[in-house]
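Database export, one record per block. Field names are fixed; values are copied verbatim from the stored entry.
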Amino acid sequence: MKIRPTCDLIWETVMNESAPPAEAPATEEAATGSTAVSRWMRTISVVFVVAIIAVVVLWFVGGRTIHYHAQVRILAPPAKVYPYLTDPDLLKQWMGDVAAITPLDDKGDEVGAKSTVLVDSNGEKLEMVSEIVEITPDKSLKVRLTCDMFVVVSDYQLSESQGATELSLDMAADFHGLARITAPLISSAIQEKLEADFHRLRDDVESAK
C-alpha cells in the first residue's frame, strides 16, 4: 500500500523539476539578444552625438580668422626678388598649382588692380580674384584673394640684410560655408604648402641669371 504514494511522489518530483527548464533557454536567448541590441543602439547614439559635437566645434573654429606665417632668406637684393611677387609668369613658377593668372584691368602693379587666378590641383580647379590692397615696390605688397569659400589677405614684407633679402608672409584667411568645417583640418597642409612655395621661390631667384 505504500508503494503507490512513493511512485506518485517520484513522478511529481520528476515533472516539477523537468518542466521549468524547457522555457529557460528561450528566456536567456531573448535577454541576450535584447542586451546586444541595446549595446549597439547605445554605441550608435554615442558615435552620432560625438560626430555632431565634432562638426559644431569645427564649424566654430573654422569661423575664426586663421593665420599663417612663412619666411625665407634669399641671397639676392629685394629689387631682384620683388618681381617674383607681381609678375604673373614668375608667380606661376614658384606658386604650386597656379595654372593661370589673367589681369582684369590695365592698372598693372597699382592699388586696386585685379586679376583672376586659376588653381588646378590634381584636376580640381578653383578660380579666385586677386586684388592689390597695398604696394610699395621692393618693400611690401598686400594682396586679397576672394572666392566663394574664403577671403585671404596675404601681406609680404621684404627687408635687405647684407645683400640678401629677408622675405616674410603673414596670411589671414576667413572661410565661408562648408569650408569652415574643413579649414581646421587642412591648416597644417596649407602651412606646409606656403613653406614649400617659399623654398621654391628662393631656389628660382638664386638660380636666375
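Remark 1: The first strand starts at residue 66 and ends at 74.
Remark 2: The radius of gyration is 35 Å.
End of record.
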